[in-house]
TrEMBL record, chains A, B, C, D:
It is an enzyme of class 4 (lyase). NADP(+) binds at R48, R54. The lineage of its organism: Bacteria, Pseudomonadati, Pseudomonadota, Alphaproteobacteria, Rhodobacterales. One of its GO terms (molecular function) is FMN binding. This is Chorismate synthase. It comes from Paracoccus alkenifer. Reduced FMN (FMNH(2)). It comes from the Bacteria. The keyword Lyase applies. FMN binds at R125, S126, S127, N241, A242, G285, K300, P301, T302, S303, S304, R326. Homotetramer. Pathway: Metabolic intermediate biosynthesis; chorismate biosynthesis; chorismate from D-erythrose 4-phosphate and phosphoenolpyruvate: step 7/7. Belongs to the chorismate synthase family. CDD domains: Chorismate_synthase. The gene is aroC.
Length: 375, 375, 375, 375
């Protein structure tokens, strides 16, 4: 039970500090025989990379991944897969004068309180650099899911940034990878670009909300009561740096609903159960129905901004802090590929858990069904 | 790694179906020497009990807990504590005519799809009866926390029910246990009572939002990156039946914020760090700061309502279903003590995890601190 | 991660003290649809029961098991299965005068040192009563294995008791359940009976060695490097009260062997690989080959004997202790059904783990095999 | 729950194939503030290294360890510690002609059966190269134990090799690091050297038995019933390549003992309980007493020998195999530092688990003790 591991059968363990020589992840429990190579993983890292667009941070990291184990002649072996990414653009100098000061809104002070020691450079282990490792793990999960759940798709996009929200009537999945915001709304790109540029000029930052649409999830994934699919998806999103809220389906809005509005009726379709609506968000009792799953989460604004903030340092001195590092005016943007990666890991994990307990066999619905199946 | 266990060191495993002879929980990892008896636990169950007020379901269960192990001469022994609650008011007859039909909005169909078999009576394992076992486990956690973290308090209350929201300017903790809604707003009780009665008369149901205020949490709890305190609190809430969204601190609102508004500045107070605000919600980088932690979650409306719904059964027949059982017009109310129990378990677990890795020793802040401590 | 849970997917958690009202086990992760009822489980408990024969202890416990959850209309539901056994013949009076004294050779003193409190009656949680719960869990595992691995058999028997060892040339599996020793050697029963009676008359006790023969284990079970099948079998045996050594295959004898003697050569048989010998004991690299697996372990003599022993009590007083309770002259006998139960749980667990990671699909051996399979 | 992770709080996860670019380990849960650098770890790897003496294999690996994370300014941070060792002397050419053949006595065939794919070069993941990663993890554990349990010592040595056994009357701990066999018996070194040289000349190999003496273990470590200290030590040893049997204290000999010989009586000494003997081997009921713990295990002979063996390959062809690689005539020798490393990890893990549940506080023995302590 490692604090730095995520997953129950398909498990990944990340390591590495922001300014250490490298960071990486050990992926365990991956099914054998999955085609995998570095070219499979790299594009996902590229989408997340700092310095890739003008929209995100100005730290330039190539984030080149190397596979060090667990793959042979282009296929996974079932043994642990080690993925490593070297840090090249640390610029430790940027952080020198805040060596013992605690940046407001960051984990500096809590790491100091808990451990009594912290690698302060670039936020050390608390830095969002760690999410590069998650994205690499997610690429492995996606490769396995391509074999095990070919109808599955996981698509992330932004739905809000500060005062701006998308117009769902113009929603177009095809637009997401064509702009720097992962926006599914082409008409909004200009407005979002101008808005964020202004925020950067103001030396400020802004929050965001991200949504994931999971389509074609096999039904029956999720293990009640404490390994429910929605519980694990929510935990996955909440574990991402700066996330403060998570919603499944209707989310917080469910508090305002009435039961008459909320029930998803069921009919029998040509291929099995046909749900007439999807208020449940594709999950009932913690188990997937096969319908679309929508997960949404909110990311708070970066606190590493360029206006002065009052703080203290480990010696107990009061001071004002101006962090001169290179920071994101909106970290929510990069959370999109991270969330997709986490979701891929959760779904693969649950697919493996389900086939552990049930062999992946589903209960039948049709004439002659007694409601109980052979093992 | 049990699907029905929650926790990492302080672990509880629940069992039991809604209409089985009993339900219960095995609590493991509890520190030894904690004073505990049935009278300690029973009040928490009473607060949750169906049939206790006119506001909730009409099933009448005494929910009497028995301690079957792990306690000797009034103190915990450090061995597993088995708590059992017998079911007495099952009334299986109520469910007879929906034997193979899947109630819309419930886990019936997903349990059937996943397992191929389900105890359909009263919802079987998917029923919220299971939450009685959690409340019992939470009472054990509270008993241990009284010894280990005496300043800690965990208080839950409703903040929304359908169209009605509390007025935070009238917030008074002392009111919470004086009304049937766990409302901290005495003036609203009449309005909420009338609203819910009307909903019941309409044979309808309504959603709710619950908030937990955790005060006096020791700083330093939470283990990054995948055992963060907020991650585990969120997972705990999301695992409760019918929960669709979870928020920590500002929650989904964080997406609208700007960084200038969001940073909690720090000064040095007489007893250590003094935060000038609490936008972070008491948790930074997944580790507690010692400040108030606010957790909020939304519960969707019950779907077991008395208006007809279209559905199918396991034999593939289409039908209309009217569930004649005894149901809650607002399950969110009973979620309040359940959420408190879950939070107690999470915090105790993290306290034990923290003392595993660090011995509970905190980094010092003051003159002469080098930033690194002895082991 | 519960200290009182065993297993990784098929997990059981035991609870209960020797003189508490009951003891039991929660079995989780069991595949759904397995036929199971109390009559299925009871015979295994009867084989283990104290008071069943003159050979074991004189405490008379009916050990009647009740299924409280997880089974519906005669089949497992995939939800937690709670099995409870009430204690009826505690006779707490027997232990009254050793209330704070530590019985030599027992866990009394270590439980006191670790927890600062212990239920001393009958050894509390450290008592071998706990093994009744394991046997119940093992019966559930066997029921599932009957469906999932019908060729599998797990047979336990004694191979040594003090100075007496079986003659393997007279080995006959059919004899095992015909005598009180689980001896596979009919001709030895008289000698063993006399030997043990004399030991009891001398107010003494004696050690034993037990062997398990596992036949028809599916190949491919076991997950290197830290969930190897032999590692988990060894841990399972070592966790049984009073076990001091475990062997797989040649065991400790392997230290004396030369490599020329030790290699199992392989030919191609009509149904696949054919091993020409089995020095490996059915497991290579932690993974089953499909050959017979032999596990052997040694149980030390009971220390609760009737000759006086020097000890101290919690108050620091020195005393002599004569334990007047009812005790086993050879606890190794009852370990036989316990070991079978543990082995069943381990093998089922590994079968589920294997189907999690590989879907249970095996690498093929034959023309056209490229050495790598689809997922 | 990763198949390639060991430990419950202090957890390490290994990765890497014999002929991959590197191998390594992620160590998690280490207490913060422990002094650690590469120079601390390297000597343990040097003791294990192949090619270091004429006694072991002739593969020459420098096994230089690099710390890639989790350490800052010479102390552990409490975040994951990544240790990496590059492979330099793979000589893949040696294995070329056995590409699809299964070496008798090795895991080749079982890895193929389980995964359908294997990295065959040098045994891939099943190779004992993996134990280098364990030794590195063990060095981290030792560093933490130096701080947390300064009286603890863990010493491993050989007690048997084939026909030769040590003479315990000549036992001298100081001799162990002075010869290539980790022999505590200086007079035997010549005989063992000659014996092993002859075995190598005969193109044969031989088994061994290793013993670990753990002194000064803090009392109270171990968590019944399924996280007992002896269970975890046994599992640790059994997980080492080629181990076939494990013993604690008297081990398999316990089967021959009588109870009168076996009980360790207790008196009150100046510093607390004083045991008059140690048949229990330092562990009672799975919890340490503070006395010496002796763990012993047997390692089977290497099967990669130079005499021809009959086998098959993945295509189903029968053949004779002569493995021309560089192999150990006695792998038991290198198991000594590996076993020490595993024991260090187990004991540190249990120390942390114990302080999780009990805060490390021990029950008192003396006047006024009520037998129950505050939390």
């Amino acid at each position: 039970m490692s604090f730095n591991s995520f997953g129950r059968v398909f498990t990944f363990t990340t390591w590495g500090e922001s300014h250490g020589p490298a960071l990486g992840v050990t992926v365990d429990g991956c099914p054998p025989g999955v085609p995998l190579d570095e070219a499979e993983i790299q594009p996902f890292l590229d989408r997340r990379r700092p310095g890739q667009s003008r929209m995100t941070t100005q730290r330039q990291e190539p984030d080149q991944v190397r596979i060090l184990s667990g793959v042979f002649e282009g296929r996974t072996t079932g043994t642990p897969i080690q993925l490593m990414i070297e840090n090249t653009d640390q610029r430790s100098r940027d952080y020198g004068d805040i060596a013992q000061a605690f940046r407001p809104g960051h984990a500096d002070i809590t790491y100091h309180l808990k451990y009594g020691i912290r690698d302060y450079r670039g936020g050390g282990r608390s830095s969002a650099r760690e999410t590069a490792a998650r994205v690499a793990a997610g690429a492995v999960a996606r490769a396995a899911l391509r074999e095990l759940a070919p109808t599955l798709s996981i698509t992330g996009y932004m739905v809000r940034m500060g005062d701006l929200a998308i117009d769902r009537s113009r929603f177009d999945v095809a637009e997401i990878l064509k702009n720097d915001f992962f926006l599914p709304d082409a008409a909004a790109v200009g407005e979002w670009t101008a808005y964020l540029s202004q925020i950067r000029k103001n030396q400020d930052s802004v929050g965001a909300a991200v949504e994931l649409l999971i389509r074609g999830c096999p039904p029956g994934l999720g293990a009640p009561v404490y390994a429910k699919l929605d519980t694990d998806l929510a935990a996955a999103m909440m574990s991402i740096n700066a996330v403060k809220g998570v919603e499944i389906g209707e989310g917080m809005e469910a508090a305002r609903l009435h039961g008459t509005e909320n029930a998803d009726e069921i009919r029998l379709g040509p291929k099995g159960p046909l749900f007439l609506s999807n208020h449940a968000g594709g999950i009932l009792g913690g188990i997937s129905t096969g319908q679309d799953i929508a997960v949404r989460f909110a990311v708070k604004p970066t606190s590493s901004i360029l206006t002065p903030r009052r703080t203290i340092n480990a010696a107990g001195q009061e001071m004002e802090l101006v962090t001169k590092g290179r920071h994101d005016p909106c970290v929510g943007i990069r959370a999109v590929p991270v969330a997709e990666a986490m979701a891929a890991c959760v779904i693969l994990d649950h697919l493996l858990l389900d086939r552990a307990q049930t062999g992946g066999r589903r209960g039948t619905i049709g004439p002659g069904t007694s409601g109980s199946q052979a093992v």
